[in-house]
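Standup notes
- DV: blocked on the single-chain target, sequence here:
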Amino acid sequence: MKQYNVAIVGATGAVGNKMREVLEERNFPVENLRLLASARSVGKKLSFKGEDISVEELKENSFVGIDIALFSAGATISRKFCPIAAKAGAIVVDNSSAWRMDKEVPLVVPEVNPDAIKRHKGIIANPNCSTIQMVVVLKPLHNVAKIKRIVVSTYQAVSGKGLKAVEELKLQSKALLEGAEPEIKVFPHRIGFNILPQIDDFLPNGYTKEEIKMIQETKKIMEDDSIKMTATTIRVPVFNCHSESVNIETEKKLSPDSAREILSKSPGVIVLDEPASCKYPLPSIADGKDECFVGRIREDESIENGLNLWIVADNIRKGAATNAVQIAEIVIKSLQ
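- DV (later): unblocked, structure below
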């Protein structure tokens, strides 16, 4: 099998670290791995397939000889360096929000719209973590019954904000349990034993950027602008894995049993729906796994054709790193 030179930008962050792990787990055909980050991380050693690799500083000449560049360093970095990497000959898979709504850039979830990859012009965008897990579950239902409207409320783990957010939850929880005043640095309010109805900045219409991202990205990925959608995104004191309460209205009647049957045969989906036995998706179940778990599938009795679903997935894996590597796997098949 042909081997490829791969770069990870933002290699020392939560998603960048997971990208490296997923490349190894999935036995991606890596000839050489280049780990790129800011100057403060230069020289730090990270393991890959039993070898310690030194982190290098991200520079404009970092992509010479690179075939695949996986970006996980934020939108500002991506806007500057993704075009540089693509011009150097690399195919870029970007995990930031920088390119997602660009008409020239495919926004891809491999289980949903893999053919979109063929339209890339050097850059492929990875969707928002909360969008990914939702569309993996909803697209098979959309194919059968056509979804007219989506109402989603997310319950997002602190790992979606990065390693500093995870540490803040740990420290705040410890402080509160000891009766001390917790220090607030990462979030606008205390996250320990609390819930924040805000992810990202607020827009003039009262929605947050995260909520608008979900709406816009879902329509682009599912290639259907007719879907009406509203979202509320919430940060909860969970370390890892996002949960979502999703309500859909369909054109065609879809029973809960039919939905379970469809989803049980869908790639990347695990149906866990035995409420009588208290079996349903939980962050503790999805943690460390690449599948999207769905349960609590039941009819919405307030409308004619409605279903309620509960979806949980590992936001660092399927919501970011694994999805990016899956895209890269499809890319290299086209290169062979």
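- Follow-up: The two ends are 9 Å apart (CA to CA).
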